[in-house]
Structures are given as C-alpha cells and as structure tokens.
Amino acid sequence: MRHGEVHNPHGVLYGRIPDYHLSELGRKMAERVAEHVAGRDIVHLVTSPLERAQETMEPIAKTFGLTPDIDERVIEAANLFEGKKFGVGDGALRQPSAWWLLRNPWKPSWGEPYVQLVRRMRDAIETAREKAAGHEALIVSHQLPIWVVRSAVEGRRMLHDPRKRQCSLASLTSFTFHGDSIVSVGYAEPAKDLLPVKDAKKFTGGA
C-alpha cells in the first residue's frame, strides 16, 4: 500500500525528511483502506519507518488488532533533490548546478539505484510472505519503491516517466504467490474518490 496524502504546504520533495505527516485527507484515505481490507485474511503488517507510512497503517492495525513491524527496507528511495521544489520552471531544475545530477536516468544518478531499490523491496516482501505463510500480509511503503518492484516483477525497464506510475495515494498493489513465485499482480484504488482533482485526472493518480 502507498501512504495517504501528506501535509506539504511548500510543495517540496520531502523524501526521507522527518516530520512530514498525513493531512486530514490523508487520514480519511487511510480509514477508507482499512474499511476496504477489513474482510481480508491479513495476519502480518509492515510499515516504512517514516511518519506518513506509520500514520497510514494506524487504522489498519486497529482493524486487525495487530502491531506492525517497522522495516527500513520499505522506506522511501533516497533522492539528492530532497528538500527542494522539483520542477523545470519553478524548482531545483532551474539551477544549472542541478543538471549534473540528471546525467544518468537509467541508474538513476540523482538517487538510490533502481537495482538496489528492487532488491531491498523484494527482500522485505519475502520476509512478510514467510511471516504470513498461508495468509496475507500488508506493507505500507512509498510510490517509487512500490512502482519499481512491480516493474521488475512484470518485466518492465526501470527507466520510466514518473507521471505514468500506476500507484496513486492510498492505492493497493498486490502480489500473489504460488510457492516461492509471484504468479499475479493486482492493483486497486479504494480511496480514488478522495484523490485531489489534479491527481485523479492523471493516468496513474500518482503524485
């Protein structure tokens, strides 16, 4: 699951910066997902250590009476633009000094390597699968980690247009296993009607 909407009045790329919390809308999104999954066979919960992820997990943990594990492996991707507004006309990309960071989009040169990101996410998913053996686990993470591990599972290249990620706020990306192998990938948006208009109109709803 991707976390809900974050209170970010200055519109910065907050990444791993602490003290970014869910907005009131984000909390409603979390409640909606808790209602959506209430009938599922979930026996194990995992969350990123960042506040927005833990706050998204709260109503789900309450629904199932479970204490979530905090797993550093599902944290947001590292990014050298963290703390800055990211845009061509009004953000960090106006500064020529930032252009060097964009030299290798395949890696990517501005942040955590995609291969490393996929590896840690796959490891975390495997641990959750083992702990929930025969049942279901739910992990709250972040858009880029979720999208790249899904892309790897579905055989897509890592280089992509961020605007086309199918991973909206409070969305659910599901991996179904048969034995040790992932046999299908699902996607759902239980809080779609709560998405901000600018996100709801996008192909992905992502932000």
TrEMBL record:
Sorted alphabetically, the keyword list is: Hydrolase
GO MF, any single term: hydrolase activity
Identification of the protein by name: Histidine phosphatase family protein
Tagged with keyword Transmembrane: no
Superkingdom in the source lineage: Bacteria
- Reply yes or no: does the keyword Hydrolase apply: yes
Which InterPro entries does its entry note? His_Pase_superF_clade-1, His_PPase_superfam, PGM_Phosphatase
Gene3D superfamilies on file:
Phosphoglycerate mutase-like
Q: Which SMART domains match?
A: PGAM
Q: What is its EC number?
A: 3.1.3.-
